[in-house]
Design brief:
mainly alpha, MetI-like fold, 2 domains
């Protein structure tokens, strides 16, 4: 197991480097350092001297990838890529274009993002799996038919509709919770309960339908018929056998959500005015702050790779037949 984890970590390094290179290259295809200087200076007519000074102050006056004028290791180290991107492998995210420390901003905004993402993830998984098991238990009945119709209808509606509709009905009409904003301490639940509820409702359709498909496939296998032949009740078959054997595809789907637990929800945080990592990323994109965007993409890649490794390890707990060497 340890050797497997070490191998996966070594495999992750070129992936992270590739993602970093691709993000860096794509950003500078869209925006050159001169364009960034003009936008940050906020002046229609910017002198070449002001642009040159802005680039020199922030390290954008060097070549992108290769510095032919340098000698030795400076050919690679005295470049924008090394100064702005390579150091993230050491945990140094640098500073945003407005001068604020990115690592400090991430640490301060992680709490509000987790306050929404963790309940959304846990409650959503419990609700969707339970609903899918209910449809499987009553398969080929009217309850199953209309349940699938409801899932298809819910997954056909945009998340934006749930957000706007929830804000209008719950906050503006019923006045149960604030329409936007965020407060710390014990009062935080007032601001997160609506985004969490909307996130759970918006995800029921696609997730429950997918889990139902997995359970229906497991129902037709030989071990289920054997369990029924032994006299086990249908509920016991579902919860004791079907659910356990369906955990591998469920865990595979769960890994996709892991980066969102830390990265935050872009839509929810923006519409509800929550100062999390999702809104931080959106603001950075609007301001064309490459330093923040680069850091968030890098962190997302690290979390996704870590989630894949944890998912592979968790397979050994739900299926003893799987062993890594």
């Amino acid at each position: 197991m340890l050797a497997y984890i070490v191998r996966r970590l070594f495999y992750a390094l070129p992936i992270l480097l590739g993602v970093n290179l691709l993000t860096f290259a794509l950003f500078f295809v869209v925006n050159t350092p001169d364009d960034m200087a003009r936008m940050q200076l906020g002046v229609k007519r910017v002198t070449p001297e002001a642009i040159a000074k802005w680039k020199a102050d922030r390290g954008y006056d060097k070549p992108l990838f290769v510095n032919a004028a340098a000698s030795g290791s400076g050919v690679l180290t005295e470049t924008i890529f090394f100064g702005k991107s390579a150091r993230m492998f050491a945990g140094d995210f640098g500073r945003a274009e407005d001068g604020r420390d990115i690592a400090r901003e991430i640490a301060s905004r992680m709490g509000p993002s987790l306050a929404i993402a963790l309940p959304n993830f846990a409650i959503g998984l419990l609700v969707t799996v339970s609903f899918a098991l209910l449809l499987t238990f009553f398969r080929a009945t009217y309850l199953d038919f209309w349940g699938v119709v409801l899932c298809v209808a819910m997954m056909s509606i945009s998340t934006l509709f749930y957000i706007i509709g929830g804000q209008y009905l719950v906050s503006k009409v019923w006045r149960l919770v604030p329409i936007s904003g965020y407060g710390g301490g014990v009062e935080a639940w007032k601001f997160v309960i609506l985004p969490v509820a909307i996130g759970v409702v918006a995800g029921i359709g696609s997730s429950a339908r997918w889990y139902r498909t997995i359970f229906i496939e497991e129902i037709g296998k030989d071990y289920v018929r054997t369990a029924r032949a032994k006299g086990l009740a249908e509920a016991a078959v579902l919860f004791r056998h079907v659910l356990r054997n369906a955990m591998i595809p469920i865990l595979t789907g769960v890994v996709v959500v892991i980066p969102l637990l830390f990265m935050g929800s872009l839509l929810s945080e923006s519409f509800f005015g929550i100062p999390g990592l999702g809104s931080y990323t959106i603001d950075a994109i609007k301001a064309q702050d490459f330093a923040v965007v680069r850091a968030m993409v890098f962190i997302g890649s690290v979390l996704y790779i870590a989630g894949l490794i944890l998912t592979d390890i968790s397979y050994t707990f739900v299926d003893p037949r799987i062993r890594f060497h």
